[in-house]
Hints:
Layout: E1 2-7, E2 11-18, E3 21-29, H1 36-54, E4 60-65, E5 68-69, E6 74-75, H2 89-97, E7 101-105, H3 106-117, E8 126-131, E9 135-141, E10 144-145, H4 177-180, H5 182-195, H6 206-214, H7 218-242, E11 246-250, H8 258-271, E12 281-284, H9 292-301
The chain binds zinc ion.
Amino acid sequence: MILGIDIGGTTTKLGLVQNGQVIARSRLSTTGHADDRAFADALAHEAIELATSAGQQITAIGIGAPNANQLTGIIEMAPNLPWKHDVPMARMMADRLHVPAVLGNDANAAALGEWRFGAGHGIDDLLVVTLGTGVGSGFIVNGRLVLGSAGNAGELGHMILVPGGRACTCGRKGCLEAYVSIRGMLATYAEAASDSTQATGAPADVKTIADRANEGDKAAVECFRRTTEWLAIGLANAVCATGPRRIVLFGGIARNGELLMAPLRERFHATLLNIYQGRVDLTVSALPDDDAALLGAAALGTLG
Ligand SMILES: [Zn+2]
């Protein structure tokens, strides 16, 4: 039985996965442990309790985490995690539970999850893009997840889209992530609102922008128009690199249904290079929200 582990900034989730379903689950706090070793001890303890109570034996572990390097098995100074140094989490869990463990970054885990269990099932040339606080991506090419020479391939969010544009969290300017992430959309709304005579107050989240767009708020409609334009260009550029058969969008922003997808499909197909026309489709994750990260982590575990 594969154990999937999703390490997040505040909560770490565990799930036993069988045939694409999470059959037992638990969680523990990521914070409040003396150090990374104490966290790994608590995590291993939780895993054993989970397996015992489910009457199952863990045979492999997959771990999804931010800033995780699949080639080295190390979480590299993740800004949102409590440990400000490199943490060899794959080895720490393999040592404690005596089974193979594979660590991967959360975007790659999402890509593998969609490929094995979700909207990309059976599609061996797949691009999965996560749209949330940041923009992550995982590329599956010729039936393999692309890792690159140092294990850090597939940073679509940091492709520069607008020379000299908005400041990005990476320290550069004009990255896709600065435009189509949650923060990017809030900034776009503010720009669109200042361009119009309308004053509805700053929205706190993307759901508020979506609600306002559905009510006809001009700045919100314009925000979605600009966001879909930028995202369409980013995706069409990515297609030129690896020629995917399908693109799956994942994460909070992708859950806005046809408000996002209808104009995005239109702009994407209008922007796509002619040789790819009719050869790539665009869809939204089919995995249940609560289980997607665990299923992705478990898919990593199948690589071990
Ligand atoms: Zn960037």
